[in-house]
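Teaching note: in complex prediction, the entire set of molecules is handled at once rather than each chain in isolation. The prompt given to students was simply: 'Predict the structure of this complex.' The entities are:
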Amino acid sequence: MKYQLEISNITKSYGDLKANDDVSLSIKGSSIHALLGENGAGKSTLVKIIYGSLMPDGGLMKWAGEKYSPKSPFEARENGIAMVFQHFSLFESLTVEENIILGLNGVGLNENFTEEILKYSKQYGLDVNPQQVVGDLSVGERQRVEIIRCLIQNPKLLIMDEPTSVLTPQEVSDLFVTLKKLADDGCAILYISHKLEEVREICSEATILRGGKLVQSCIPQEHSQKELAEMMIGKKLTELARSNISVGSDIFSIKNLSRKSDDMYGVHLHDISLTMRKGSIVGIAGVAGNGQDELMELLIGEKSSSSGVLNFNGKDIGSMNSHERRQLSMFFVPEERLGHGAVPDMTLDENMLLSRPDSDGMTSNGVIDWKTVTSFSEQVISDFDVQTPSSRMLAKSLSGGNLQKFMVGRELIRKPELIIVAQPTWGVDAGSANNIHQSLISLADQGSAVLIISQDLDEILSLCEQIHVLSEGRLSDAVDMNKDGLEKISQLMVGGQKS
Amino acid sequence: MIENLLIEIFIGITIASAPLIFAAIGELLVERSGVLNLGVEGMMIVGALLGFVVISHTGNPYLAVLAALVAGMMIASIFAFLTQFLLTNQVATGLALTLFGLGFAAFAGRDYTEVTIDLIGPIHIPILSEIPYIGPSLFSLNPLIYLAFFMVYLVWWFLFKTKQGLILRAIGDNHDAAHAIGHNVVLYRFMAILFGGAMAGLGGAFLSLVQVPIWGEGMTAGRGWIALGLVVFASWQPFRIILGAVIFGGITVLQLHAQGFDIRISAQYLSMLPYLATIVILVSLRMRLKNKTNRTVPNCLGRIFHSTT
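The expected output is the structure of the full assembly:
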């Protein structure tokens, strides 16, 4: 079969940095081709070149055998290339239909598009309401809008830039059904991801990039996840293992916590109880949107809770704000990195200082000692392998995975007695995830308590000794892994507490 | 007798509100594209001056209106260049534009303070203007007033009925996404700013060519700022501009007539009313939108767009 898209020897530099260095790859029609690599390996640059939003410095592209050099996304779309962006390119204040029209060449407003949208929506099982305002939609629904916007152009190549990083497992499996159907209909798909298990499930070929260079092209099913990860990072992964499990006295407890959510789409929390001991790693598994955000707000101290509910080291902390809680050595990494965990328009140094209890030597009499602040940031940058030119970069200029490493590191170097982390490796590549996991483990080895809230079940299973499941706002008792194991967890995750 | 007074008040209100409508509808389009131009007052006064200068030399009202329009665009193009290409802060640049416009007009217009001109008069539409009451109040108005109302319709039609209008709104909502799918953010914003300038220029010309036959330093007297307030009052919906302008304009007119009838309300209280109304509307708007996606304020308003690719 002949290739739909052939790329040979593409090069692209930004100053001294070679984002793409002599990269070649070929994609057949009807195939799902994975593009793998760590954060900053040059995946996004390569697809932007294919989609016409970047010009390569050198190299050649062929589209269905013809020379192809798009000068704008319009030209790429004319040729039948469509793209779903990592950070959705949707307009929140506009309706679904208006959003779809905006991404199409040569479609005016007069044509009645609603039926066309519904036709595709039905054909590929992508449920959307064309007249709804995008701002009111969930993340999964937004992605469906993006995909329909692509499908309506009848693309011959669909590029998907990390499409699953924000989806729930159910949404992911729905997406895969759609993608397989598309490939069967003859569309080639270029699938960018660092979730290796997904790649092994749906991709028939894989191209691996590292540091802008092509490492290898292979068939993902012929390699284990670990082998693929090692090809991506270019070194061996550390085996996760606890060197010292010595569980001590109780350090943190939640007693009968209930909360009515004030958000119209929120989840009410019902009677949640949990006890954690020093040196233990406790995991709360569960599909996102089952009360994780609401619980996290209470744990961080963004919302206060009534007395007698939250207890840390014998103190009632229910009414303390997060700053006061940090002063007691209770630290947090919230899920939303920009705007919640970090101030996007401030530097890493400033973000380092902002999350600190004031007793840290970074200020004296209220005056900031920038040298000390910078030395802390630099320590985090080197310990956690954060890819950034300096600690004076704005938080928003870092890639998601890099910022996550910085934020986890920022909390961990304080050696907290208790750390609460939501989605610790969300959007982080395999090598860095391994690194973050290792640091959480060694923190626990030193006697601190670690609470992990994650929807990545593998992560919970590989790290935690005590596992609970949060479902529809209720927290299960600890699952006995020796007796019930995985089956029980899955059951709790989908079926709630009733089963 | 009372009928004549009502007609007089009605016409007075249209004359008082037309310059506000021009300036505000232009700014509305600019803000819909995500740009905040605080230079409306400056663009208005330069338009007022240029219109006045041209009519005093040529006596041609068409040329005068055209000159005002072009003058507004020229001033706006300074703002457009600075904010769109040199990425300057929009608030500071807009304020500078207002101060520059006021100073420039005062300086360039110093030889015209003694000059008087013939005002552009109303037109009488045949037959229709003969209808009692309705004729004189609706069909014998100044042509520029009809133009003002038509511009409101035109902007509404552009924003909500054309693809370009949709793209402009999309750019105001999320310029990064618009850029990613291949729309030219800077070009759209540049054109919108020029349109805003042209409209502000027209609004200024209305003051010096229709309202009063003389040129005076600072004759816009804060109307540019009122126009900016009107855009918010209208919650970025074109037709609400008319409502707002009529309230603002109407209060000015009623103030005069209230004094005539010996109604003792301090002028200061009356002048306060439009602003109080704006605050009430803003609060009620927010209450109504609680927990809903904001569809009124353009999300990118005042934010600098810098493409990295």
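Point out the following to students. Chain A touches chain B through 30 residues (CB under 8 Å). The mean pLDDT of chain A is 85.
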